[in-house]
């Protein structure tokens, strides 16, 4: 080997040694620098905590790092990382984490807490505080589903109630759907039964829906500052009808207490002895989905879901109380009992008609007859007039008047017969069917020879009328009667002479009838007085 090559190899070896020495120096210096970084965990704010709860852990550091973690150790030798999240950091020095104590942590054990860095790897000094783990209470008892009815009263039924049972001495806590704390229980006492009052919004919907509203809450119980796990409960608001079913011809009816909404009372009528429909046919509107009508015939207490059929054979009104009740009570609420609706069923009587007006009158005079009715108007009646046994044509009249008065002018004695009566309820009942109008002939001549023998003067008369009867035997008695047009006898005389005078000065002007009877013979004359 030449001298040049030998010296070149020596130079390479020297250079390699220098590089290795420099690298070792740098490693030594770096280790010395990291060995000087510190991470000190500060005293804790509490000395005991519940399993599952969180604590704030603060540490001071002399280096920058974003990979810090919190660890827990029962013996100060073996540490385990626990969940933690950064709360705050002050520059490069102070840092605070919120750490959660695992629920599996042994109860009653004392633990050390420290903050460590993963990059750079710095093992922090533990907190001087010894942390004791307390038992976490069991969750409270609360229904997973709470059913309540929608609010229909403007000034009542204001809250829903979520009840819970806790251990003695515990407090109940309420959280919203986002698990954000809301408040402690509204009912606090020495018992284990507590409650939360949830304001109920006014949801005066008249249309059925299911559910009206649903809200999720969480409930816990706290004992000695230890809070249990959260228990989920669902508050479900169900539809409630404002009143019972709306009745036929319903009208608003205010009830007590004041400020409640009105209920409704309706009416319906049937004719006597007609076939009534069940109340669900025309007594009220159809109930909402999931609802049925419960009926009660007042004042009875028995209730039924079978639609009643009103009785029409007696003239007695029937009042039914009606309520809406849910078929499935988990999907709806019944209406308030005070807001039940009512339907009064009235029975319309059949028509009756009574004919009146039997009388006696003189030929040419009109007769006034009347028909009295019962039942509802209008009425239609038919009557016939007759002479002897021969019936005349029937006459039909429709009227609202009660009684109905009508005039007839028979020329001779006539029977008037009421044959039928009807109204909206159909054929009715006729009572006192026949009246008789007797007609006395105005100038009837029963004996022509006697009529020829009678002479009456003056006509017309002012003060007295003179009567002369020719050939009247002295032993024969003649009877003279002065009659008004109503058939009343005003003056009666018995004479045995051929001449007689009847004074009329005390009678009113008008037409009168003079009837002369001799034995069994009669004659009648009309007299006009001025």
Rg, Å, rounded: 59 Å
Uncertain regions: pLDDT < 50 for 5+ in a row? Answer: 1-8, 17-35, 388-392
Look at the structure and give the mean pLDDT: 86
* N-end to C-end Cα span: 196 Å
CATH topology of the largest domain: Immunoglobulin-like
Number of helices: 3
- Total tally of structural domains: 6
Question: What's the layout of helices and strands?
Answer:
Elements: H1 3-35, E1 39-41, E2 48-50, E3 54-61, E4 68-73, E5 80-82, E6 84-90, E7 94-100, E8 110-118, E9 121-122, E10 131-134, E11 141-142, E12 145-149, E13 159-165, E14 171-175, E15 181-184, E16 193-199, E17 213-223, E18 226-227, E19 231-238, E20 251-253, E21 263-271, H2 279-282, E22 291-297, E23 318-326, E24 341-348, E25 352-356, E26 359-362, E27 367-374, E28 379-387, E29 390-391, E30 395-399, E31 404-408, E32 414-423, E33 426-427, E34 429-431, E35 434-440, H3 448-453, E36 454-457, E37 464-469, E38 478-483, E39 489-495, E40 499-503, E41 510-518, E42 521-529
Parallel strand pairs: 2-10, 12-19, 21-24, 25-34, 26-35
Antiparallel strand pairs: 1-3, 3-7, 4-5, 4-8, 6-7, 8-9, 8-10, 11-13, 13-16, 14-15, 14-17, 17-18, 17-19, 20-21, 22-23, 23-24, 25-27, 27-31, 28-29, 28-30, 28-32, 32-33, 32-35, 36-37, 37-40, 38-39, 38-41, 41-42
Structure report:
The structure is a single chain. The chain has 530 residues and is mostly beta strands. The protein folds into six domains: 1-34; 39-134, Sandwich (Immunoglobulin-like), CATH 2.60.40; 141-238, Immunoglobulin-like; 251-348, Immunoglobulin-like, CATH 2.60.40; 352-440, Immunoglobulin-like (Sandwich), CATH 2.60.40.2030; 448-529, Sandwich (Immunoglobulin-like), CATH 2.60.40.3080.
């Amino acid at each position: 080997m030449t001298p040049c090559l030998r010296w070149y190899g020596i130079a390479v070896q020297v250079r390699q040694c220098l590089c290795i020495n420099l690298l070792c120096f740098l490693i030594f210096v770096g280790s010395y620098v990291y060995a000087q970084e510190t991470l000190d965990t500060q005293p804790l704010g509490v000395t005991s905590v519940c399993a599952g709860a969180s604590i704030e852990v603060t540490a001071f550091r002399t280096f920058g790092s974003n990979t810090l973690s919190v660890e827990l150790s029962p013996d100060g030798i073996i540490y385990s990382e626990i969940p933690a999240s950064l709360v705050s950091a002050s520059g490069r020095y102070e840092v605070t984490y919120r750490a959660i104590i695992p629920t599996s942590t042994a109860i009653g054990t004392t633990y050390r807490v420290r903050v460590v860095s993963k990059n750079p790897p710095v093992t922090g000094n533990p907190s001087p505080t010894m942390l004791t783990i307390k038992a976490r209470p069991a969750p409270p008892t609360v229904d997973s589903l709470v059913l309540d009815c929608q609010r229909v009263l403007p000034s009542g039924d204001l809250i829903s109630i979520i009840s819970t049972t806790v251990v003695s001495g515990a407090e109940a806590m309420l959280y919203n759907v986002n698990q954000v704390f809301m408040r402690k229980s509204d009912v606090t006492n020495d018992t284990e039964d507590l409650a939360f009052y949830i304001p109920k919004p006014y949801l005066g919907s008249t249309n059925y829906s299911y559910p009206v509203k649903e809200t999720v809450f969480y409930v816990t119980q706290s004992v000695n500052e230890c809070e249990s796990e959260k228990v989920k409960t669902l508050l479900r608001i169900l539809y409630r009808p404002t009143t019972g079913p709306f009745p036929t011809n319903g009208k608003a009816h205010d009830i007590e207490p004041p400020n409640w909404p009105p209920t409704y009372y309706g009416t319906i009528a049937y004719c006597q002895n007609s076939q009534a429909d069940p109340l669900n046919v025309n007594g009220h509107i159809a109930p909402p989905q999931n609802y049925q009508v419960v009926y009660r015939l007042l004042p009875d207490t028995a209730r039924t879901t079978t639609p009643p059929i009103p009785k029409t054979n007696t003239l007695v009104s029937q009042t039914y109380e009606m309520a809406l009740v849910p078929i499935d009570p988990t999907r709806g609420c019944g209406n308030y009992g005070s807001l039940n609706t009512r339907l009064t069923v009235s029975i319309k009587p059949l028509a009756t008609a009574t004919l009146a007006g039997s009388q006696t009158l003189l030929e040419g005079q009109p007769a006034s007859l009347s028909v009295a009715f019962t039942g509802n108007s209008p009425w239609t009646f038919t009557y016939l007039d007759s002479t002897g046994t021969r019936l005349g044509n029937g006459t039909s009249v429709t009227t609202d008047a009660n009684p109905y008065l009508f005039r007839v002018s028979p020329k001779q004695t006539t029977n008037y017969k009421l044959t039928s009566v009807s109204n909206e309820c159909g054929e009715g009942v006729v009572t006192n069917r026949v009246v008789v109008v007797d007609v006395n002939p105005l100038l009837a001549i029963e004996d022509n020879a006697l009529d020829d023998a009678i002479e009456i003067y003056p006509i017309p008369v002012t003060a007295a009328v003179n009567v002369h009867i020719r050939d009247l035997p002295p032993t024969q008695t003649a009877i003279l009667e002065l009659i008004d047009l109503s058939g009343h006898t005003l003056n009666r005389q018995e004479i045995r002479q051929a001449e007689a005078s009847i004074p009329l000065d005390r009678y009113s002007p008008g037409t009168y009838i003079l009837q002369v009877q001799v034995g069994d013979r009669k004659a009648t004359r009309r007299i006009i007085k001025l």
